[in-house]
């Protein structure tokens, strides 16, 4: 790299927040295409990473294994993979999206044999506890990652399952981390509850300050972000900004900044309200507090692009999935 060129290096990230309809794959893909067609105003290569939400094109809140089974996709060849591959090639950037992955028969056998997931009654309201769905593994709640030439980079399976996932999904084996070219560098994929390995009954300050924020998006104005949800994410990410979590081999004054991108969906499904509020945080243990850079509102549908100027005086930021923000709503 030529002298002084680092000063010009920028990290450019986009999130697509929208309201996918449960089970309406083609309509959801059409909506996603309409939104991403707005990116034609910028030259290919102007983004480094574009993110879609969890189970972006199928919807999420399937009530049973039999309900989600018709929408399971094979990686590399399913609708989500095809869409992301084509879009990544068109935009010349990395693209990630969530989808319900169909497992091969041998994977299903192993997952069922090794399964240790159970549903906790505390995850359900009192009126729901008489009809807790039976767990039947048919797939995995997964994500794909495609590269700028439309090539498959890798996938990830959600590890810490929410109650909805427990009806049908095999658990993954931990975060997936990829070493990508600069300016992305180290990128880690996670899905929703992966930030929270404890059920509500197991929350305690000593093992993680996960109980400090309430999750009540339906009590907040729709034309604002869900502040309780943003607080919830920030608290769950505390090891990235609290200096007491620093490792012994981390040099003094050399703590790295981690850029955290949260891409959420909006809307409702089967009585569940989604909080939207897709956001970008920057976190550094030397600062001792999280920095919320920008966020979308609860019901906003569109694309938000963030450009982060990299600081040449510090280590390159890490990605976990003063910036400028450009809405394309």
TrEMBL record:
InterPro entries: C-N_Hydrolase, C-N_Hydrolase_sf, Nta1
One GO MF term attached to the UniProt entry: protein-N-terminal asparagine amidohydrolase activity
Swiss-Prot/TrEMBL GO biological process terms: protein catabolic process
SUPFAM superfamilies: Carbon-nitrogen hydrolase (SSF56317)
Domain of life of the organism encoding this protein: Eukaryota
CN hydrolase domain sequence ranges: 11-312
Stored PROSITE patterns: CN_HYDROLASE
Protein name in the entry: CN hydrolase domain-containing protein
Source species of the chain: Leucocoprinus birnbaumii
